[in-house]
Amino acid sequence: MLNVHTRLQTWQKRIEGVLEAVLPPPSAHPARLHEALRYSVLNGGKRMRPLLTYATGEALGIAPDHLDIPAASIELVHVYSLVHDDLPAMDNDDLRRGKPTCHKAFDEPTAILVGDALQALAFQILASHPGMNASPAQRLRMIEQLAQAAGSRGMVGGQAIDLAAVGRELTEVELENMHIHKTGALIRASVLMAAYSVEAVDARCLQQLDHFAKCIGLAFQVQDDILDVESDTRTLGKTRGVDAAAGKPTYPSIIGLAASKAKLQDLYDEAMSALLSFDESANLLREIAEFTVKRIR
Amino acid sequence: MLNVHTRLQTWQKRIEGVLEAVLPPPSAHPARLHEALRYSVLNGGKRMRPLLTYATGEALGIAPDHLDIPAASIELVHVYSLVHDDLPAMDNDDLRRGKPTCHKAFDEPTAILVGDALQALAFQILASHPGMNASPAQRLRMIEQLAQAAGSRGMVGGQAIDLAAVGRELTEVELENMHIHKTGALIRASVLMAAYSVEAVDARCLQQLDHFAKCIGLAFQVQDDILDVESDTRTLGKTRGVDAAAGKPTYPSIIGLAASKAKLQDLYDEAMSALLSFDESANLLREIAEFTVKRIR
Protein backbone atom coordinates (compact mmCIF):
# COMPACT_ATOMS: atom_id res chain seq x y z
CA MET A 1 0.00 0.00 0.00
CA LEU A 2 2.80 2.38 0.88
CA ASN A 3 4.40 1.41 -2.38
CA VAL A 4 1.24 2.33 -4.32
CA HIS A 5 0.94 5.62 -2.48
CA THR A 6 4.57 6.47 -3.23
CA ARG A 7 4.13 5.63 -6.88
CA LEU A 8 1.02 7.78 -7.22
CA GLN A 9 3.03 10.64 -5.67
CA THR A 10 5.84 10.01 -8.13
CA TRP A 11 3.37 10.35 -10.97
CA GLN A 12 1.87 13.48 -9.48
CA LYS A 13 5.36 15.00 -9.46
CA ARG A 14 5.90 13.75 -12.98
CA ILE A 15 2.77 15.42 -14.37
CA GLU A 16 3.63 18.67 -12.55
CA GLY A 17 6.92 18.66 -14.45
CA VAL A 18 5.19 17.96 -17.76
CA LEU A 19 2.61 20.71 -17.24
CA GLU A 20 5.34 23.14 -16.22
CA ALA A 21 7.23 22.29 -19.41
CA VAL A 22 4.31 22.54 -21.86
CA LEU A 23 3.12 25.90 -20.53
CA PRO A 24 4.75 28.91 -22.18
CA PRO A 25 7.31 30.52 -19.85
CA PRO A 26 6.04 33.34 -17.63
CA SER A 27 8.19 35.73 -19.63
CA ALA A 28 6.34 34.92 -22.89
CA HIS A 29 4.45 37.85 -24.39
CA PRO A 30 1.83 38.83 -23.16
CA ALA A 31 3.41 38.21 -19.76
CA ARG A 32 0.39 38.80 -17.53
CA LEU A 33 -1.71 36.24 -19.43
CA HIS A 34 1.06 33.67 -19.25
CA GLU A 35 1.56 34.35 -15.57
CA ALA A 36 -2.17 33.71 -15.09
CA LEU A 37 -2.01 30.50 -17.12
CA ARG A 38 0.76 29.15 -14.91
CA TYR A 39 -0.94 30.34 -11.74
CA SER A 40 -4.10 28.44 -12.69
CA VAL A 41 -2.46 25.20 -13.78
CA LEU A 42 0.48 24.82 -11.38
CA ASN A 43 -1.55 24.89 -8.19
CA GLY A 44 -0.96 21.43 -6.75
CA GLY A 45 -4.20 19.78 -7.85
CA LYS A 46 -4.89 16.10 -7.16
CA ARG A 47 -4.25 15.34 -10.86
CA MET A 48 -6.74 12.48 -10.71
CA ARG A 49 -7.16 12.39 -14.50
CA PRO A 50 -3.44 12.16 -15.34
CA LEU A 51 -3.05 9.49 -12.63
CA LEU A 52 -5.80 7.49 -14.33
CA THR A 53 -4.01 7.86 -17.66
CA TYR A 54 -0.71 6.63 -16.24
CA ALA A 55 -2.38 3.78 -14.32
CA THR A 56 -4.26 2.66 -17.44
CA GLY A 57 -0.95 2.75 -19.27
CA GLU A 58 0.57 0.49 -16.65
CA ALA A 59 -2.30 -1.98 -17.06
CA LEU A 60 -1.61 -2.02 -20.81
CA GLY A 61 2.17 -2.05 -20.63
CA ILE A 62 2.67 1.51 -21.88
CA ALA A 63 5.58 3.46 -20.44
CA PRO A 64 4.63 6.74 -18.71
CA ASP A 65 6.75 8.88 -21.04
CA HIS A 66 4.41 7.91 -23.88
CA LEU A 67 1.51 9.24 -21.85
CA ASP A 68 2.90 12.53 -20.58
CA ILE A 69 1.34 14.64 -23.33
CA PRO A 70 -2.10 12.96 -23.38
CA ALA A 71 -2.21 13.20 -19.57
CA ALA A 72 -1.19 16.87 -19.64
CA SER A 73 -3.74 17.70 -22.36
CA ILE A 74 -6.58 16.25 -20.28
CA GLU A 75 -5.45 18.13 -17.18
CA LEU A 76 -5.27 21.40 -19.17
CA VAL A 77 -8.89 20.92 -20.26
CA HIS A 78 -9.89 20.08 -16.68
CA VAL A 79 -8.17 23.20 -15.33
CA TYR A 80 -9.72 25.43 -18.00
CA SER A 81 -13.15 24.12 -16.98
CA LEU A 82 -12.44 24.97 -13.32
CA VAL A 83 -11.26 28.49 -14.19
CA HIS A 84 -14.44 29.16 -16.19
CA ASP A 85 -16.62 27.39 -13.62
CA ASP A 86 -15.30 29.66 -10.86
CA LEU A 87 -16.29 32.84 -12.75
CA PRO A 88 -18.85 35.19 -11.14
CA ALA A 89 -21.38 34.37 -13.88
CA MET A 90 -21.00 30.66 -13.12
CA ASP A 91 -20.29 29.33 -9.59
CA ASN A 92 -18.74 32.60 -8.38
CA ASP A 93 -16.04 30.98 -6.27
CA ASP A 94 -13.35 33.09 -4.65
CA LEU A 95 -11.12 30.25 -3.52
CA ARG A 96 -9.77 27.06 -5.03
CA ARG A 97 -7.45 24.88 -2.98
CA GLY A 98 -7.25 27.69 -0.48
CA LYS A 99 -5.86 30.15 -3.02
CA PRO A 100 -7.72 32.97 -4.79
CA THR A 101 -9.36 31.76 -8.01
CA CYS A 102 -7.94 33.07 -11.28
CA HIS A 103 -10.43 35.91 -11.65
CA LYS A 104 -9.73 36.97 -8.05
CA ALA A 105 -5.94 36.79 -8.33
CA PHE A 106 -6.03 38.49 -11.75
CA ASP A 107 -9.35 39.72 -13.15
CA GLU A 108 -12.43 38.38 -14.87
CA PRO A 109 -11.44 39.01 -18.50
CA THR A 110 -8.07 37.40 -17.84
CA ALA A 111 -9.77 34.33 -16.35
CA ILE A 112 -11.98 33.99 -19.43
CA LEU A 113 -8.90 34.21 -21.66
CA VAL A 114 -6.92 31.78 -19.48
CA GLY A 115 -9.60 29.12 -19.95
CA ASP A 116 -9.74 29.77 -23.68
CA ALA A 117 -5.95 29.58 -24.04
CA LEU A 118 -5.65 26.39 -21.99
CA GLN A 119 -8.14 24.61 -24.23
CA ALA A 120 -6.17 25.63 -27.33
CA LEU A 121 -2.91 24.53 -25.69
CA ALA A 122 -4.36 21.09 -24.93
CA PHE A 123 -5.04 20.44 -28.61
CA GLN A 124 -1.79 22.06 -29.69
CA ILE A 125 0.39 19.69 -27.66
CA LEU A 126 -1.62 16.64 -28.75
CA ALA A 127 -1.17 17.66 -32.38
CA SER A 128 2.47 18.58 -32.36
CA HIS A 129 4.46 17.95 -29.18
CA PRO A 130 7.67 16.20 -30.26
CA GLY A 131 7.93 14.35 -26.94
CA MET A 132 4.87 12.29 -27.78
CA ASN A 133 5.53 8.88 -29.24
CA ALA A 134 2.42 8.29 -31.35
CA SER A 135 1.53 7.95 -35.01
CA PRO A 136 -0.46 10.76 -36.67
CA ALA A 137 -3.52 8.48 -36.66
CA GLN A 138 -3.14 7.87 -32.91
CA ARG A 139 -2.75 11.57 -32.21
CA LEU A 140 -5.90 12.27 -34.23
CA ARG A 141 -7.87 9.64 -32.36
CA MET A 142 -6.86 11.24 -29.06
CA ILE A 143 -7.71 14.73 -30.28
CA GLU A 144 -11.11 13.49 -31.42
CA GLN A 145 -11.70 11.78 -28.07
CA LEU A 146 -10.66 14.85 -26.06
CA ALA A 147 -12.67 17.26 -28.20
CA GLN A 148 -15.76 15.09 -27.93
CA ALA A 149 -15.33 14.67 -24.17
CA ALA A 150 -14.81 18.40 -23.70
CA GLY A 151 -17.54 19.64 -26.03
CA SER A 152 -21.26 20.38 -26.01
CA ARG A 153 -22.16 16.70 -25.77
CA GLY A 154 -19.56 16.09 -23.07
CA MET A 155 -18.17 18.27 -20.29
CA VAL A 156 -19.54 21.61 -21.50
CA GLY A 157 -22.93 19.99 -22.04
CA GLY A 158 -22.78 18.75 -18.46
CA GLN A 159 -22.09 22.28 -17.23
CA ALA A 160 -25.17 23.47 -19.12
CA ILE A 161 -27.29 20.68 -17.60
CA ASP A 162 -25.92 21.61 -14.16
CA LEU A 163 -26.82 25.28 -14.61
CA ALA A 164 -30.33 24.40 -15.67
CA ALA A 165 -30.71 22.04 -12.68
CA VAL A 166 -30.07 24.50 -9.84
CA GLY A 167 -33.17 24.92 -7.71
CA ARG A 168 -35.08 22.31 -9.68
CA GLU A 169 -36.04 18.80 -8.52
CA LEU A 170 -34.12 16.21 -10.49
CA THR A 171 -34.75 12.51 -10.76
CA GLU A 172 -31.86 10.16 -10.08
CA VAL A 173 -31.63 9.46 -13.81
CA GLU A 174 -31.35 13.17 -14.58
CA LEU A 175 -28.69 13.65 -11.91
CA GLU A 176 -26.71 10.73 -13.30
CA ASN A 177 -27.04 12.14 -16.79
CA MET A 178 -25.58 15.42 -15.57
CA HIS A 179 -22.55 13.76 -13.97
CA ILE A 180 -21.96 11.47 -16.95
CA HIS A 181 -21.51 14.61 -19.04
CA LYS A 182 -19.97 17.06 -16.60
CA THR A 183 -17.18 14.93 -15.13
CA GLY A 184 -17.69 11.44 -16.54
CA ALA A 185 -16.75 12.30 -20.12
CA LEU A 186 -13.29 13.62 -19.24
CA ILE A 187 -12.59 10.76 -16.81
CA ARG A 188 -13.44 8.28 -19.54
CA ALA A 189 -11.14 10.18 -21.90
CA SER A 190 -8.32 9.86 -19.33
CA VAL A 191 -8.56 6.09 -19.58
CA LEU A 192 -9.38 5.78 -23.29
CA MET A 193 -6.61 8.12 -24.45
CA ALA A 194 -4.06 5.93 -22.66
CA ALA A 195 -5.51 2.91 -24.46
CA TYR A 196 -5.21 4.69 -27.80
CA SER A 197 -1.45 4.78 -27.25
CA VAL A 198 -1.41 1.08 -28.05
CA GLU A 199 -1.13 0.53 -31.78
CA ALA A 200 -4.03 -1.95 -31.95
CA VAL A 201 -6.23 -1.93 -28.89
CA ASP A 202 -8.23 -5.05 -28.20
CA ALA A 203 -11.90 -4.01 -28.46
CA ARG A 204 -13.00 -6.07 -25.47
CA CYS A 205 -10.21 -4.73 -23.29
CA LEU A 206 -11.10 -1.17 -24.35
CA GLN A 207 -14.72 -1.77 -23.41
CA GLN A 208 -13.74 -3.09 -19.97
CA LEU A 209 -11.55 -0.09 -19.30
CA ASP A 210 -14.29 2.22 -20.49
CA HIS A 211 -16.78 0.56 -18.17
CA PHE A 212 -14.33 0.86 -15.29
CA ALA A 213 -13.92 4.58 -16.04
CA LYS A 214 -17.68 5.16 -16.19
CA CYS A 215 -18.15 3.51 -12.79
CA ILE A 216 -15.41 5.33 -10.95
CA GLY A 217 -16.34 8.65 -12.57
CA LEU A 218 -19.82 8.32 -11.14
CA ALA A 219 -18.56 6.87 -7.84
CA PHE A 220 -16.40 9.97 -7.41
CA GLN A 221 -19.52 12.18 -7.67
CA VAL A 222 -21.60 10.04 -5.32
CA GLN A 223 -18.80 10.15 -2.74
CA ASP A 224 -18.54 13.92 -3.25
CA ASP A 225 -22.23 14.28 -2.41
CA ILE A 226 -21.94 11.99 0.63
CA LEU A 227 -18.96 14.01 1.91
CA ASP A 228 -20.98 17.21 1.49
CA VAL A 229 -23.44 15.79 4.03
CA GLU A 230 -21.17 13.82 6.34
CA SER A 231 -17.71 15.31 6.49
CA ASP A 232 -16.92 18.16 8.84
CA THR A 233 -15.98 21.43 7.21
CA ARG A 234 -12.36 21.30 8.40
CA THR A 235 -11.63 17.93 6.78
CA LEU A 236 -13.46 18.80 3.59
CA GLY A 237 -11.68 22.13 3.09
CA LYS A 238 -14.97 23.67 2.08
CA THR A 239 -18.19 24.34 3.94
CA ARG A 240 -20.20 21.21 4.72
CA GLY A 241 -23.64 21.11 3.15
CA VAL A 242 -22.68 23.88 0.75
CA ASP A 243 -24.00 22.04 -2.30
CA ALA A 244 -27.30 21.15 -0.69
CA ALA A 245 -27.68 24.74 0.57
CA ALA A 246 -27.01 26.12 -2.91
CA GLY A 247 -30.00 24.17 -4.17
CA LYS A 248 -27.73 21.81 -6.10
CA PRO A 249 -29.25 18.38 -6.53
CA THR A 250 -27.21 15.67 -4.78
CA TYR A 251 -27.56 11.90 -4.40
CA PRO A 252 -28.45 12.11 -0.69
CA SER A 253 -31.08 14.77 -1.41
CA ILE A 254 -32.69 12.63 -4.12
CA ILE A 255 -32.30 9.02 -2.98
CA GLY A 256 -31.28 9.48 0.67
CA LEU A 257 -27.97 8.91 2.44
CA ALA A 258 -28.25 5.14 2.94
CA ALA A 259 -29.16 4.49 -0.68
CA SER A 260 -26.31 6.78 -1.75
CA LYS A 261 -23.84 4.69 0.22
CA ALA A 262 -25.24 1.50 -1.25
CA LYS A 263 -24.92 2.99 -4.72
CA LEU A 264 -21.31 3.94 -4.05
CA GLN A 265 -20.54 0.36 -3.03
CA ASP A 266 -22.30 -1.00 -6.14
CA LEU A 267 -20.30 1.29 -8.41
CA TYR A 268 -17.07 0.24 -6.70
CA ASP A 269 -17.93 -3.45 -7.11
CA GLU A 270 -18.83 -2.92 -10.75
CA ALA A 271 -15.58 -1.04 -11.40
CA MET A 272 -13.58 -3.88 -9.85
CA SER A 273 -15.50 -6.47 -11.88
CA ALA A 274 -14.68 -4.62 -15.06
CA LEU A 275 -10.99 -5.27 -14.36
CA LEU A 276 -11.40 -9.01 -13.66
CA SER A 277 -9.55 -10.13 -16.77
CA PHE A 278 -6.58 -7.87 -15.96
CA ASP A 279 -3.64 -9.18 -13.91
CA GLU A 280 -1.78 -7.32 -11.19
CA SER A 281 -0.60 -4.71 -13.71
CA ALA A 282 -4.04 -3.13 -13.15
CA ASN A 283 -3.51 -2.86 -9.41
CA LEU A 284 -2.96 0.87 -9.54
CA LEU A 285 -6.29 1.30 -11.30
CA ARG A 286 -7.84 -0.79 -8.51
CA GLU A 287 -6.15 1.40 -5.91
CA ILE A 288 -7.53 4.53 -7.55
CA ALA A 289 -11.01 3.01 -7.42
CA GLU A 290 -10.57 2.22 -3.74
CA PHE A 291 -9.24 5.69 -3.03
CA THR A 292 -12.25 7.16 -4.83
CA VAL A 293 -14.80 5.53 -2.55
CA LYS A 294 -12.78 5.79 0.67
CA ARG A 295 -11.47 9.34 0.39
CA ILE A 296 -12.57 11.70 3.12
CA ARG A 297 -12.27 14.94 1.14
CA MET B 1 -16.42 41.95 -61.28
CA LEU B 2 -20.02 40.82 -61.06
CA ASN B 3 -18.73 37.31 -61.55
CA VAL B 4 -16.36 37.63 -58.58
CA HIS B 5 -19.08 39.07 -56.38
CA THR B 6 -21.43 36.25 -57.32
CA ARG B 7 -18.80 33.65 -56.58
CA LEU B 8 -17.99 35.12 -53.19
CA GLN B 9 -21.71 34.96 -52.41
CA THR B 10 -21.82 31.35 -53.58
CA TRP B 11 -19.03 30.53 -51.14
CA GLN B 12 -20.75 32.41 -48.36
CA LYS B 13 -23.81 30.24 -48.92
CA ARG B 14 -21.61 27.19 -49.10
CA ILE B 15 -19.94 27.84 -45.72
CA GLU B 16 -23.35 28.55 -44.13
CA GLY B 17 -24.40 25.07 -45.21
CA VAL B 18 -21.21 23.50 -43.88
CA LEU B 19 -21.53 25.27 -40.52
CA GLU B 20 -25.17 24.28 -40.28
CA ALA B 21 -24.20 20.65 -40.95
CA VAL B 22 -21.29 20.41 -38.49
CA LEU B 23 -23.23 21.97 -35.60
CA PRO B 24 -25.20 19.46 -33.53
CA PRO B 25 -28.94 19.69 -34.28
CA PRO B 26 -30.96 22.04 -32.06
CA SER B 27 -32.70 18.98 -30.61
CA ALA B 28 -29.39 17.54 -29.30
CA HIS B 29 -29.20 17.28 -25.54
CA PRO B 30 -28.82 19.73 -23.80
CA ALA B 31 -31.14 21.56 -26.16
CA ARG B 32 -30.78 25.10 -24.84
CA LEU B 33 -26.99 25.01 -25.21
CA HIS B 34 -27.26 23.67 -28.74
CA GLU B 35 -29.86 26.27 -29.61
CA ALA B 36 -27.42 28.93 -28.36
CA LEU B 37 -24.56 27.42 -30.37
CA ARG B 38 -26.60 27.64 -33.55
CA TYR B 39 -27.90 31.12 -32.73
CA SER B 40 -24.32 32.37 -32.33
CA VAL B 41 -22.83 30.73 -35.42
CA LEU B 42 -25.67 30.94 -37.97
CA ASN B 43 -26.07 34.69 -37.90
CA GLY B 44 -25.10 35.73 -41.41
CA GLY B 45 -21.56 36.91 -40.72
CA LYS B 46 -19.29 38.12 -43.51
CA ARG B 47 -17.34 34.83 -43.30
CA MET B 48 -14.18 36.63 -44.37
CA ARG B 49 -11.92 33.86 -43.04
CA PRO B 50 -13.66 30.98 -44.86
CA LEU B 51 -13.69 33.10 -48.05
CA LEU B 52 -9.93 33.52 -47.70
CA THR B 53 -9.55 29.76 -47.28
CA TYR B 54 -11.60 29.01 -50.39
CA ALA B 55 -9.85 31.76 -52.41
CA THR B 56 -6.42 30.45 -51.37
CA GLY B 57 -7.58 27.00 -52.41
CA GLU B 58 -8.52 28.35 -55.84
CA ALA B 59 -5.07 29.90 -56.21
CA LEU B 60 -3.53 26.52 -55.42
CA GLY B 61 -5.96 24.40 -57.45
CA ILE B 62 -7.74 22.85 -54.45
CA ALA B 63 -11.44 22.14 -54.83
CA PRO B 64 -13.70 23.86 -52.27
CA ASP B 65 -15.08 20.57 -50.91
CA HIS B 66 -11.59 19.77 -49.61
CA LEU B 67 -11.63 23.04 -47.70
CA ASP B 68 -15.11 23.00 -46.18
CA ILE B 69 -13.99 21.58 -42.83
CA PRO B 70 -10.83 23.69 -42.40
CA ALA B 71 -12.86 26.79 -43.33
CA ALA B 72 -15.64 25.88 -40.90
CA SER B 73 -13.18 25.17 -38.08
CA ILE B 74 -11.62 28.62 -38.43
CA GLU B 75 -15.03 30.30 -38.47
CA LEU B 76 -16.06 28.37 -35.33
CA VAL B 77 -12.99 29.69 -33.52
CA HIS B 78 -13.70 33.21 -34.80
CA VAL B 79 -17.32 33.05 -33.61
CA TYR B 80 -16.33 31.69 -30.19
CA SER B 81 -13.94 34.64 -29.80
CA LEU B 82 -16.76 37.07 -30.64
CA VAL B 83 -19.15 35.44 -28.15
CA HIS B 84 -16.56 35.69 -25.37
CA ASP B 85 -15.47 39.17 -26.48
CA ASP B 86 -19.06 40.43 -26.19
CA LEU B 87 -19.38 39.29 -22.54
CA PRO B 88 -20.02 41.93 -19.87
CA ALA B 89 -16.56 41.31 -18.37
CA MET B 90 -14.98 41.96 -21.77
CA ASP B 91 -16.43 44.45 -24.30
CA ASN B 92 -19.95 44.27 -22.86
CA ASP B 93 -21.76 44.46 -26.19
CA ASP B 94 -25.52 44.00 -26.39
CA LEU B 95 -25.79 43.76 -30.15
CA ARG B 96 -23.94 41.98 -32.93
CA ARG B 97 -25.11 42.38 -36.51
CA GLY B 98 -28.20 44.07 -35.13
CA LYS B 99 -29.22 41.03 -33.08
CA PRO B 100 -28.84 40.54 -29.32
CA THR B 101 -25.46 39.03 -28.44
CA CYS B 102 -25.43 35.46 -27.11
CA HIS B 103 -25.39 36.46 -23.42
CA LYS B 104 -28.31 38.85 -24.07
CA ALA B 105 -30.40 36.38 -26.06
CA PHE B 106 -29.61 33.56 -23.60
CA ASP B 107 -27.58 34.34 -20.49
CA GLU B 108 -24.00 34.91 -19.44
CA PRO B 109 -23.11 31.37 -18.30
CA THR B 110 -24.56 29.99 -21.54
CA ALA B 111 -22.45 32.42 -23.57
CA ILE B 112 -19.29 31.30 -21.75
CA LEU B 113 -20.19 27.66 -22.46
CA VAL B 114 -21.09 28.39 -26.10
CA GLY B 115 -17.60 29.79 -26.69
CA ASP B 116 -15.99 26.84 -24.94
CA ALA B 117 -18.03 24.31 -26.93
CA LEU B 118 -17.36 26.00 -30.27
CA GLN B 119 -13.63 25.81 -29.71
CA ALA B 120 -13.85 22.08 -28.94
CA LEU B 121 -16.04 21.53 -32.01
CA ALA B 122 -13.50 23.24 -34.26
CA PHE B 123 -10.81 20.74 -33.27
CA GLN B 124 -13.23 17.84 -33.30
CA ILE B 125 -14.20 18.34 -36.94
CA LEU B 126 -10.59 18.87 -38.02
CA ALA B 127 -9.60 15.63 -36.29
CA SER B 128 -12.41 13.41 -37.45
CA HIS B 129 -14.90 14.80 -39.94
CA PRO B 130 -15.28 12.16 -42.65
CA GLY B 131 -16.04 14.78 -45.29
CA MET B 132 -12.48 16.08 -45.11
CA ASN B 133 -10.12 14.75 -47.72
CA ALA B 134 -6.76 14.95 -45.95
CA SER B 135 -4.13 12.59 -44.62
CA PRO B 136 -3.72 12.24 -40.83
CA ALA B 137 -0.48 14.23 -41.10
CA GLN B 138 -2.28 17.04 -42.95
CA ARG B 139 -5.07 17.12 -40.40
CA LEU B 140 -2.52 17.35 -37.59
CA ARG B 141 -0.68 20.19 -39.28
CA MET B 142 -3.97 22.11 -39.55
CA ILE B 143 -4.89 21.40 -35.94
CA GLU B 144 -1.47 22.61 -34.83
CA GLN B 145 -1.82 25.76 -36.94
CA LEU B 146 -5.30 26.54 -35.66
CA ALA B 147 -4.40 25.85 -32.03
CA GLN B 148 -1.34 28.07 -32.27
CA ALA B 149 -3.28 30.85 -33.99
CA ALA B 150 -6.07 30.65 -31.42
CA GLY B 151 -3.93 30.33 -28.30
CA SER B 152 -2.08 32.51 -25.83
CA ARG B 153 0.54 33.49 -28.37
CA GLY B 154 -2.08 34.13 -31.03
CA MET B 155 -5.67 35.38 -30.87
CA VAL B 156 -6.18 35.00 -27.12
CA GLY B 157 -2.83 36.69 -26.52
CA GLY B 158 -4.04 39.55 -28.72
CA GLN B 159 -7.20 39.89 -26.63
CA ALA B 160 -5.03 40.13 -23.52
CA ILE B 161 -2.84 42.80 -25.14
CA ASP B 162 -6.00 44.66 -26.17
CA LEU B 163 -7.41 44.61 -22.62
CA ALA B 164 -4.16 45.92 -21.22
CA ALA B 165 -4.05 48.69 -23.84
CA VAL B 166 -7.37 50.42 -23.11
CA GLY B 167 -6.80 53.94 -21.86
CA ARG B 168 -3.05 53.67 -22.34
CA GLU B 169 -0.94 55.43 -24.99
CA LEU B 170 0.43 52.89 -27.43
CA THR B 171 3.16 53.30 -29.99
CA GLU B 172 2.43 52.27 -33.57
CA VAL B 173 4.61 49.20 -33.07
CA GLU B 174 2.61 48.16 -29.99
CA LEU B 175 -0.69 48.69 -31.82
CA GLU B 176 0.54 46.60 -34.74
CA ASN B 177 1.69 43.89 -32.34
CA MET B 178 -1.81 43.77 -30.85
CA HIS B 179 -3.51 43.38 -34.23
CA ILE B 180 -0.97 40.78 -35.43
CA HIS B 181 -2.05 38.64 -32.51
CA LYS B 182 -5.72 39.48 -32.10
CA THR B 183 -6.92 39.15 -35.67
CA GLY B 184 -3.80 38.57 -37.77
CA ALA B 185 -3.07 35.09 -36.43
CA LEU B 186 -6.45 33.65 -37.43
CA ILE B 187 -6.42 35.37 -40.83
CA ARG B 188 -3.00 33.85 -41.51
CA ALA B 189 -4.37 30.47 -40.45
CA SER B 190 -7.23 30.86 -42.95
CA VAL B 191 -4.71 31.06 -45.76
CA LEU B 192 -2.11 28.62 -44.43
CA MET B 193 -4.62 25.87 -43.63
CA ALA B 194 -5.81 25.93 -47.23
CA ALA B 195 -2.20 25.58 -48.35
CA TYR B 196 -1.74 22.59 -46.02
CA SER B 197 -4.40 20.77 -48.06
CA VAL B 198 -1.79 20.38 -50.78
CA GLU B 199 0.29 17.28 -50.17
CA ALA B 200 3.64 19.02 -50.65
CA VAL B 201 3.41 22.79 -50.46
CA ASP B 202 6.16 24.75 -52.15
CA ALA B 203 7.94 26.65 -49.35
CA ARG B 204 8.31 29.85 -51.36
CA CYS B 205 4.66 29.82 -52.41
CA LEU B 206 3.66 29.26 -48.77
CA GLN B 207 5.76 32.21 -47.69
CA GLN B 208 4.18 34.47 -50.34
CA LEU B 209 0.69 33.49 -49.28
CA ASP B 210 1.62 34.02 -45.64
CA HIS B 211 2.95 37.47 -46.42
CA PHE B 212 -0.23 38.29 -48.35
CA ALA B 213 -2.30 37.19 -45.34
CA LYS B 214 -0.25 39.28 -42.90
CA CYS B 215 -0.69 42.38 -45.05
CA ILE B 216 -4.43 42.10 -45.58
CA GLY B 217 -5.01 41.14 -41.93
CA LEU B 218 -3.39 44.38 -40.86
CA ALA B 219 -5.00 46.37 -43.69
CA PHE B 220 -8.40 45.22 -42.46
CA GLN B 221 -7.65 46.72 -39.04
CA VAL B 222 -6.29 49.99 -40.41
CA GLN B 223 -9.41 50.38 -42.56
CA ASP B 224 -11.55 49.56 -39.52
CA ASP B 225 -9.91 52.40 -37.61
CA ILE B 226 -10.29 54.81 -40.53
CA LEU B 227 -13.98 53.93 -40.85
CA ASP B 228 -14.41 54.57 -37.13
CA VAL B 229 -13.34 58.19 -37.80
CA GLU B 230 -14.76 58.81 -41.28
CA SER B 231 -17.87 56.77 -41.87
CA ASP B 232 -21.24 57.96 -40.74
CA THR B 233 -22.97 55.90 -38.09
CA ARG B 234 -25.73 54.69 -40.39
CA THR B 235 -23.36 53.20 -42.97
CA LEU B 236 -21.11 51.67 -40.34
CA GLY B 237 -23.92 49.98 -38.43
CA LYS B 238 -22.30 51.02 -35.20
CA THR B 239 -21.65 54.38 -33.58
CA ARG B 240 -18.95 56.40 -35.32
CA GLY B 241 -15.94 57.21 -33.14
CA VAL B 242 -16.96 54.52 -30.67
CA ASP B 243 -13.48 52.97 -30.54
CA ALA B 244 -11.75 56.30 -30.07
CA ALA B 245 -14.27 57.28 -27.41
CA ALA B 246 -13.74 54.01 -25.54
CA GLY B 247 -10.08 54.90 -25.18
CA LYS B 248 -9.10 52.17 -27.63
CA PRO B 249 -5.91 52.99 -29.47
CA THR B 250 -6.44 53.36 -33.24
CA TYR B 251 -4.17 54.14 -36.17
CA PRO B 252 -5.64 57.64 -36.73
CA SER B 253 -5.24 58.44 -33.02
CA ILE B 254 -1.58 57.37 -33.05
CA ILE B 255 -0.25 58.30 -36.49
CA GLY B 256 -3.03 60.57 -37.79
CA LEU B 257 -5.63 60.05 -40.52
CA ALA B 258 -3.46 60.87 -43.52
CA ALA B 259 -0.66 58.55 -42.44
CA SER B 260 -3.26 55.85 -41.74
CA LYS B 261 -4.55 56.10 -45.29
CA ALA B 262 -1.03 55.96 -46.66
CA LYS B 263 -0.34 52.90 -44.54
CA LEU B 264 -3.49 51.23 -45.84
CA GLN B 265 -2.33 51.83 -49.43
CA ASP B 266 1.15 50.48 -48.62
CA LEU B 267 -0.29 47.33 -47.11
CA TYR B 268 -2.54 46.82 -50.12
CA ASP B 269 0.39 47.27 -52.50
CA GLU B 270 2.50 44.87 -50.48
CA ALA B 271 -0.30 42.27 -50.43
CA MET B 272 -0.64 42.51 -54.23
CA SER B 273 3.13 42.21 -54.68
CA ALA B 274 3.15 39.06 -52.62
CA LEU B 275 0.90 37.46 -55.24
CA LEU B 276 3.01 38.53 -58.24
CA SER B 277 4.13 35.02 -59.12
CA PHE B 278 0.53 33.74 -59.08
CA ASP B 279 -1.53 33.72 -62.27
CA GLU B 280 -5.19 34.64 -62.59
CA SER B 281 -6.19 31.75 -60.32
CA ALA B 282 -5.29 34.14 -57.47
CA ASN B 283 -7.70 36.82 -58.72
CA LEU B 284 -10.20 36.12 -55.97
CA LEU B 285 -7.50 36.65 -53.36
CA ARG B 286 -6.72 39.96 -55.11
CA GLU B 287 -10.40 40.88 -55.04
CA ILE B 288 -10.58 40.17 -51.32
CA ALA B 289 -7.59 42.46 -50.79
CA GLU B 290 -9.28 45.20 -52.79
CA PHE B 291 -12.53 44.73 -50.92
CA THR B 292 -10.62 44.99 -47.64
CA VAL B 293 -9.24 48.44 -48.37
CA LYS B 294 -12.31 49.80 -50.20
CA ARG B 295 -15.07 48.56 -47.94
CA ILE B 296 -17.20 51.24 -46.32
CA ARG B 297 -18.29 49.26 -43.26
TrEMBL record, chains A, B:
Gene3D superfamilies: Farnesyl Diphosphate Synthase
Coiled coil: none
Pfam families: polyprenyl_synt (PF00348)
PROSITE patterns reported for this sequence: POLYPRENYL_SYNTHASE_1 (PS00723), POLYPRENYL_SYNTHASE_2 (PS00444)
Cofactor list: Mg(2+)
InterPro entries, A to Z: Isoprenoid_synthase_dom_sf (IPR008949), Polyprenyl_synt (IPR000092), Polyprenyl_synt_CS (IPR033749), Prenyl_diphosphate_synthase (IPR053378)
Enzyme class (EC, first level): transferase
SUPFAM superfamilies assigned: Terpenoid synthases (SSF48576)
Keywords of the record: Isoprene biosynthesis, Magnesium, Metal-binding, Transferase
EC number: 2.5.1.10
Gene Ontology MF terms: (2E,6E)-farnesyl diphosphate synthase activity
Family in the record: Belongs to the FPP/GGPP synthase family.
PANTHER family hit by this protein: FARNESYL DIPHOSPHATE SYNTHASE
Descriptive protein name: Farnesyl diphosphate synthase
Upper classification of the organism: Bacteria, Pseudomonadati, Pseudomonadota, Gammaproteobacteria, Thiotrichales
